[in-house]
């Protein structure tokens, strides 16, 4: 089984190194090959997603991804900026189903912005469609307005769009995931304003007919942003489009207080997947050896389960992470009085030891 | 001075009645005329925004609006649904500047989902552009896809767009508002993905050159949704487009724990304005006499200040609301141990008495 290892920028190299270390002690036939991506790839090859990196990713069973981005690339033309690498990988590999769990770890309840009783035991799964919507819709660009409020003025525009098969396949993913959990799906839309999301809602209702054992609820995106704050535990599986999912999954993961702990998976229809932490490249703490590697280590566990048919190894990693937390090890982002502050490498070592 | 009073649906009639009562004791030359809107107007005239209501709104100096919507209208064709009234008023009156304060009242800190130290003293002003973006962009509709991932499939689409003058005028509004407050503006965009919001960012930077005394910060919308949870007090004025503003302003108002207290204003370039509470029509508690009228009463105060040149009367109302809270009166939504639970009418009476 072949894993493409793409550490990227900022803390990416540090956290991915720990996940690789963990994978190596598992005694599984894993072939890992590393390649540059994002700003690091731009520095070396003049492009955030060089052909060699893309080909490696395509040929692998799974991709272990760190993070990309740094302020120093803000001035580059858009196609050369680090985040284009992640958009390019999603598009070229057809990674349409993004799984973002928002879990509040028992020992980390206090780290949440929310009151403990609102987040203790929180376990939401946000499923974000990842290859459609306004992220990729054409046409887009700049032009002179011919109508609207200021005809003749310069304007910029983008196209939001979803086709029936795109909505159907992500709806199936959500209903099937709900069957493994609380059997409830909240489909988030803006059907009261957008044609795209009225259609989204209509198609989700049709697909739901095949899942009578799963409860389906519809919620407007503005209300969802509120309910996540008001009563996050009322959600089980949330399914939504690319743009709304971008916003709500980040909101939800920050609510848990443990964004440094949250993995994510992006899958295509062949179960090939890209696995990355939910947090970003954090250039402000890069190189200091203090980043939390657990989200990346848990992403490696998701990878073993979803793409590499090694669910037992995934379980072992997850238990190891739990025992490390129980033993009181904490990187600075999740540290609190009475626990032991450790760095990136020590945390990785602790997980290896627990294995 | 003429006020169009549009109570609407659900709790709308109850809360607007209290605001009208408050306005009446001010001893100002206010002419108030009432008209149906939303579902109530659909029942009477077959349309959520009948011509008579629209004309009244156009001819008034200001509109006092309750709320619209009820599940029972969900099956209607979209142009007949209650929320079309509010979209129609925004469009026909050109109400492009939406002011949504997110304030955490001292006595209500405990009602927030967030830990007290994160919200005590919170005072953010979200300025949402309200007549552009994907809400009104053409073309939109359904069609057969000619390109994209599934050519030949049914698809639905919408157009996001902003022209230079639309961005310029809302940027001026934000910078000017910041001058009255903390002199900091956070412009929220998604410039890393959307052409529309790269243009937004470029134009906001240009306008900023005229406000060297105001600090300007740019933030991606997903990050903004996180930072609102993590450190809401780091914001002063937030300016963003119609769609992102819809989501973030609801998130921010729910963070305060006092959404039943938060007013809003939507202004055009002639300072004509629509004033409404930030919360919705709450059909589940309609007719029970328990809705909180304070957001609507505070909206009336904003109306006096922004559209009716009566800032002293506005101050008086705001002080009266504060003293009523200090005296311990609470509607059920903000009630806590040790305070006195009152209904909608008693709360209105208490404000009148305090005046
Ligand atoms: C970097 C950016 C393009 C990306 C997105 O918007 O999808 C990121 O925010 C994410 O959620 O993975
Ligand atoms: C009712 C709906 C059309 C409206 C909007 O999306 O603008 C509402 O959510 C609001 O924020 O006033």
UniProtKB/TrEMBL annotation, chains A, B:
Binds 1 Mg(2+) or Mn(2+) ion per subunit. It is found in: Cytoplasm. Transmembrane segments: none annotated. Keywords: Amino-acid biosynthesis, Branched-chain amino acid biosynthesis, Cytoplasm, Leucine biosynthesis, Magnesium, Manganese, Metal-binding, NAD, Oxidoreductase. Residues 2-351 form the Isopropylmalate dehydrogenase-like domain. NAD(+) binds at residues 280-292. It is an enzyme of class 1 (oxidoreductase). Its cofactor is Mn(2+); Mg(2+). GO terms for cellular component: cytosol. Pfam families: Iso_dh. Catalyzes the oxidation of 3-carboxy-2-hydroxy-4-methylpentanoate (3-isopropylmalate) to 3-carboxy-4-methyl-2-oxopentanoate. The product decarboxylates to 4-methyl-2 oxopentanoate. This is 3-isopropylmalate dehydrogenase.
């Amino acid at each position: 089984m072949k894993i493409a290892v793409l550490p990227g920028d900022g803390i990416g190299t540090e956290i991915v190194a720990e996940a690789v270390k963990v994978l190596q002690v598992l005694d599984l036939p894993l072939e890992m090959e590393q390649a540059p991506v994002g700003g690091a790839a731009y520095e070396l090859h003049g492009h955030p997603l060089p052909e060699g990196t893309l080909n490696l990713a395509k040929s692998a069973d799974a991709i272990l991804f760190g993070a990309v981005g740094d302020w120093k690339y803000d001035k580059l033309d858009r196609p050369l900026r680090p985040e284009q690498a992640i958009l390019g990988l999603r598009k070229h590999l057809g990674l349409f189903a993004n799984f973002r769990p928002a879990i509040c770890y028992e020992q980390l309840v206090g780290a949440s912005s929310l009151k403990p009783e609102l987040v203790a035991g929180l376990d939401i799964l946000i499923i974000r469609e990842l290859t459609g919507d306004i992220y990729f819709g054409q046409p887009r660009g700049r032009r002179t307005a011919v109508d609207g409020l200021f005809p003749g003025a310069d304007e910029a525009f983008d196209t939001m769009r979803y086709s029936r098969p795109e909505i159907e396949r992500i709806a199936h993913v959500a209903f099937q995931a709900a069957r493994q959990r609380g059997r409830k799906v909240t489909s988030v839309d803006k059907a009261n304003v957008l044609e795209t999301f009225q259609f989204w809602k209509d198609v989700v209702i049709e697909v739901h007919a095949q899942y009578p054992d799963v409860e389906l609820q519809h919620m407007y995106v503005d209300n969802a942003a509120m309910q996540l704050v008001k009563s996050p535990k009322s959600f089980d599986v949330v399914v939504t489009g690319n743009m709304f999912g971008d916003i709500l999954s980040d909101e939800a993961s920050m609510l848990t207080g443990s964004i440094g702990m949250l993995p994510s998976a992006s899958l295509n229809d062949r179960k090939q997947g890209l696995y990355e932490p939910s947090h970003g490249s954090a250039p402000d703490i890069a190189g200091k050896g203090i980043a939390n590697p657990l989200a990346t280590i848990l992403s490696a566990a998701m990878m073993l389960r979803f793409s590499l048919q090694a669910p037992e190894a995934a379980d072992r990693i997850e238990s190891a992470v739990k025992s490390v937390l129980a033993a009181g090890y904490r990187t600075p982002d999740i540290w609190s009085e009475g626990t032991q502050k450790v760095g990136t490498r020590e945390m990785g070592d602790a997980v290896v030891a627990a294995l």
